[in-house]
Design brief:
mainly alpha, 2 domains, 60% helix, disordered N terminus, Arc Repressor Mutant, subunit A, 8 helices, disordered C terminus
Length: 204
């Protein structure tokens, strides 16, 4: 598991721009793997599309925000990536339904009933799932979640963003993030429970 975003030194905008390419290379090395997992899950396992979305997000980040610090890049990158994903999903929906422009196409489930729950904090997905589970098993289970639950879980549990930042990235309310995240955790616990030998109950 990669460490949380690291603090960067205070630098002037001109210095940040001059070192942008090197910083971007290091930034890409750190987040590409996790971003690809997220996009592959969101695009139903389309590796090529996931790669394109991640690369386009990096290009946009470098083009528009080269003067920002590396710390500022983390939420900016995932915001851009989320926007790229939503654009792709709209195009796919229009392609599947040629006349969908005559009606509103609902791609997200942010209108779901928001649960009155205390914000959950899960800095590491393995903290609430059995340690014996492999990353591949967890990723397969994540891929079965609705897209917005995937995003909420990955941004909160894998990237370590707080609820407020996650809501900004996903362009939704903090209440929606809490609900998506809560339901994702419950679904993952249920779908992976049969792999956990430490859960109670008979094995017969």
């Amino acid at each position: 598991m990669d460490s949380a975003p690291k603090q960067s030194r205070t630098e002037t905008p001109s210095a940040l721009k001059s070192t942008a390419e090197l910083r971007l290379k290091n930034f890409m090395n750190e987040v590409t793997g996790r971003a690809l997992v997220m996009m592959e899950s969101a695009t139903q396992g389309h590796h090529g599309i996931a790669m394109d979305l991640v690369q386009e997000a990096f290009i946009s980040l470098h083009k528009s925000y080269s003067d920002k610090t590396t710390d500022e890049w983390y939420p900016l990158f995932y915001t851009i990536l989320n926007n790229k994903l939503q654009d792709w999903r709209r195009k796919e929906a229009s392609r599947a339904q040629p006349f969908s422009f005559f009606k509103k196409v609902s791609l997200d489930d942010d209108d779901i009933e928001q649960l009155d729950i205390v914000d959950e904090s899960t800095p590491n997905p393995f903290d609430f799932l059995d340690q014996a589970l492999s990353a591949e098993e967890i990723q397969e289970a994540i891929a079965q979640l609705p897209t917005r639950q995937q995003q909420a879980f990955m941004l909160r549990a894998w990237e370590g963003f707080d609820t407020k930042t996650t809501a900004q990235i996903m362009s939704c309310t903090e209440g929606s993030v809490k609900t998506h995240y809560h339901r994702a955790i419950q679904a993952l616990r249920l779908s992976l429970s049969h792999m956990n030998p430490y859960k109670g109950g008979s094995s017969e």
